[in-house]
Amino acid sequence: MAPFVDIIIAALIVLGGAFALIGSWGLARLPNLMARLHGPTKATTLGVGGCLVAAMLYFPTHGMAFSMHELLVTLFLFITAPISANMVAKAYLHERMTAARDGTAPEPDLPPAYRMPLPEAASESCGWATFGAPEEAPQPDTTPRR
Amino acid sequence: MIAGALTIALGCVSLALVLTLYRLFKGPSAADRILALDTLVINVIALIVLLGILEETMVYFEAALLLAMVGFVGTVAYAKFLLRGDIVE
Predict the structure, then answer these.
(1) Structural domain span for residue B64
(2) B89 within a domain of the structure (yes/no)
(3) pLDDT at A118 > cutoff 60
(4) How many other C-beta atoms are found inside a 10 Å radius of the C-beta of residue A65?
(5) pLDDT given for residue A123 in this prediction
(6) In this model, does residue B47 exceed pLDDT 80?
(7) Is the pLDDT of residue A135 over 70?
(8) Is residue B30, in this structure, part of any structural domain at all?
(9) With contacts defined as CB-CB under 8 Å, which chain A residues touch B1?
(10) How far off is chain A from B30, nearest CA to CA, in Å?
């Protein structure tokens, strides 16, 4: 029984390390931030999850107590990864659209349904989401292009 | 067998840390750097967990849990600072 568990643990450890490497490789190689978000949020989180599940299997089968810490870390990472990715994407959009309004950078390449007004119009109503909903205030594209 | 797997995985995670550091120093926008810091924290959690298996101690998992929480709060605080110009309004 023990060698079988060892094979599973070793496979999980190698898979976890490989997924972490793939995620960081995507972070270094992909062309823009919206594409770069995919690597860390999916592959790296899965890699850490693999390592933590391997640790959770390793300790009870090698004569140590079972602990819930690994499960807690895994759950916490899997819950918080989408939230932090959303915050980073919003910060990126804010930066790009502010630069586009000031005329120092081109508009971000977004489909028209996602072109949102800048927060000055509705900063009280949108709270954490600094951009208003797209259908609330459909503005014509008046920013100068370079 | 587990020792060999641990060696491979530690090498992979260390290489991942180097790639993330490259993005942290190069990253054209501030959002890139936030993303790189978040990835750095997640990779360090993986490194800590692998070291804990290697040294057969469970002390490191407390550090992993704390690092996961602090990393998330730091990422959200930095992103919110970019969005609103303030963290606690």
Answers:
(1) 2-84
(2) no
(3) no
(4) 7
(5) 47
(6) yes
(7) no
(8) yes
(9) 6-7, 10
(10) 8
Q: Residue A117 carries which side chain, given as an amino acid letter?
A: P
In a domain, B52, yes or no: yes
Given a contact cutoff of 8 angstroms between Cβ atoms, the answer to whether B70 and B61 are in contact is no
Q: Is residue B38 one of the residues assigned to a domain?
A: yes
What ipTM score was computed for the predicted complex, to two decimals? 0.90
**How many domains, chain B?**
1
Separation CA A92–CA B70 (nearest Å): 22
Question: Cβ of A24 and B15 within 8 Å?
Answer: yes
Task: Give CA–CA dist B42/A27, Å, rounded.
Answer: 13
Convert the pLDDT of each residue in A83-99 to its tens digit: 999 999 888 888 877 77
| CA separation for the pair B32, B38 (Å, rounded) | 10
Across the interface, of A24, A37, A130, the residue whose CB is closest to B84 is A130
Q: Any idea what the CATH number is for the domain that residue B18 is in?
A: 1.10.287
User: Measured between CB atoms, which of B16, B32, B58 is closest to A23?
Assistant: B16
Give B23's contacts in chain A (Cβ within 8 Å): 27-28, 36
Residues of A (107-126) whose Cβ lies below 8 Å from B: none
What pLDDT is recorded for position A107?
Answer: 63
